[in-house]
Specification:
The chain contains nine helices and eight strands. It is of the alpha+beta class. The protein has a six-stranded antiparallel beta sheet. A two-stranded antiparallel sheet has the order 1-2. The longest helix has 22 residues. It is globular. Keywords: DNA-binding, Transcription, Transcription regulation.
């Protein structure tokens, strides 16, 4: 026991150890993303920033808890975390209310549809339907996309408080390609145009050749809660054609979600 711990109660010491353990587990979980779904121990150490022995010991404990799996020597997120995540209200309530309208929209447009919520300065993809036209360059369920240059993000920000908009835009707007809008003024012009037509547009700002149209979903309080979108090749996803279908689906989803709770 160190001198600083001599006057510390066992409960306080246990709480400190527990917090440290949770922080280590969080660092390991944070090493995984859509581009790094499976990691060797060396890769996990490099990405989580913990010492190798600490990473190995903590990861083994997480495997026993079901938080991680380790098939063929590669670490990946365990099924237990997937089971727990499915209980989160944003997945359970929002997804169940909106999913039928996502399916209808996919049937009508025959292209990828997504459901997203604002998470800090990013959009968290809550649900996605791709059908027979997979688009691997898009984020998977649980992945994130920047709010400032995505139609999902703009559909939500257009109906958000000024403080929320400023926080997102002040977080940084790096260019993803030459067509990405990276000035605050340009993005705000896009947001201002959304309420008049009902949907937001992103024209190849994330991936060249891919465009997206999104509309907001409102919750029980009348505040914007999420957005749904159609995404696909620019030649197929034209705002004048996809916009009305997206708006209709979002309006129906808003009614369903608003009356569910």
């Amino acid at each position: 026991m160190t001198p600083g711990e001599q006057g510390t109660s066992p409960t306080a010491r246990d709480g400190k150890a527990e917090t440290s353990g949770l922080e280590r587990a969080a660092a390991i979980l944070g090493a995984f993303d859509a581009a790094h779904r499976e990691l060797t121990l060396s890769a996990l150490v490099a990405r989580c920033g913990l010492p190798r022995s600490t990473t190995h010991r903590t990861a083994d404990r997480m495997i026993r808890l079901g938080w991680l799996d380790k098939p063929q020597g590669h670490y990946r997120i365990g099924n237990r975390l997937f089971e727990i995540a499915s209980l989160a209200p944003i997945r359970l309530e929002l997804r169940e209310a909106v999913l039928p309208y996502l399916q209808d929209l996919h049937s009508a447009t025959r292209t990828t549809v997504q459901l997203g919520v604002l998470d800090g300065a990013q959009i968290l993809v809550v649900e996605k339907i791709t059908g027979h036209r997979p688009m691997p360059m898009l984020s998977q369920v649980g992945g994130i996309v920047p709010a400032y240059c995505s139609a999902l993000g703009r559909a939500i920000l257009a109906y958000s408080e000024t403080e929320t908009i400023d926080a997102v835009l002040d977080a940084g707007m790096p260019s993803r390609n030459p067509r990405t809008l990276t000035s605050k003024e340009a993005v705000i012009r896009e947001l201002t145009a959304v309420p008049a037509r009902g949907w937001a547009v992103e024209r190849e700002e994330g991936n060249i050749g891919v465009s997206c149209v999104a509309a907001p979903i409102f919750g029980p309080s009348g505040a914007v809660a999420a957005a749904l979108s159609v995404t696909g090749p620019t030649a197929l996803v034209r705002a004048d054609r996809a916009g009305p279908a997206v708006l209709l689906a979002a309006a129906a989803a808003s009614r369903a979600y608003s009356t569910r709770r």
